[in-house]
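fyi for ur records
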Amino acid sequence: MKDITKKYTNGEITIVWKPAMCIHSTICWKHATGLPKVFNPMIKPWINPEAATTEEIITQISKCPSGALSFYKGDAK
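which gave:
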């Protein structure tokens, strides 16, 4: 897979997703462990940063075992 980086922002936080690093652990979107209102692989785009607070998003991203999800404060650059 190419070294693709996707960015999704709500203006306050930008979620960065690197698909090549993703191990598909499902931690980000499964109801028991995840934040499915933000991370939903059944819809496009699969990341909706406007569906939760910045704090909730940061907490969830910190659980990503592969590092495929990261973030920075502010708009996408």
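The first helix runs from residue 54 to 61. thats all i got for now
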